[in-house]
Design a protein that fits this description.
84 residues; mainly alpha; two-stranded antiparallel ribbon; 3 helices; elongated; exonuclease activity; Single-stranded-DNA-specific exonuclease RecJ; exonuclease; hydrolase
C-alpha cells in the first residue's frame, strides 16, 4: 500500500515557496529529486492559490490521520484490505 499524502504536501509546499519567490525548484523527470536555488523574493500571481492548496493538503492529512487514529483495529484491518 502506498499513500502519497506526504509527497503531495511536499509538492504543495514547494509550489507555495516557489510562487512566493522564496525559492526556485526543479523536479527531475522521475520526480524523485528536487533541485533548489534561492528565490528572487518576488511573489507571482499564483501565490494565493499555492498557499490555499498547501493549507488544504495539510488539513486533509490531519483529517485522514484523525480518521485512522479513531478507527477500531478490526475495522482498520478491513480498510487496509482494500489496498491489497
Amino acid at each position: 500500500m502506498k499513500l502519497c499524502v506526504e509527497e503531495n504536501i511536499v509538492k504543495a509546499g514547494l509550489k507555495y515557496l516557489g510562487s512566493s519567490g522564496m525559492l526556485n525548484y526543479t523536479l527531475s523527470d522521475d520526480e524523485q529529486k528536487v533541485y533548489l536555488s534561492e528565490g528572487k523574493g518576488v511573489a507571482d500571481k499564483s501565490t494565493f492559490m499555492a498557499k490555499k492548496n498547501l493549507a488544504d493538503a495539510l488539513a486533509e492529512k490531519n483529517a485522514y490521520q484523525q480518521f485512522i487514529l479513531k478507527m477500531e483495529i478490526d475495522r482498520f484491518k478491513e480498510y487496509l484490505k482494500k489496498f491489497d
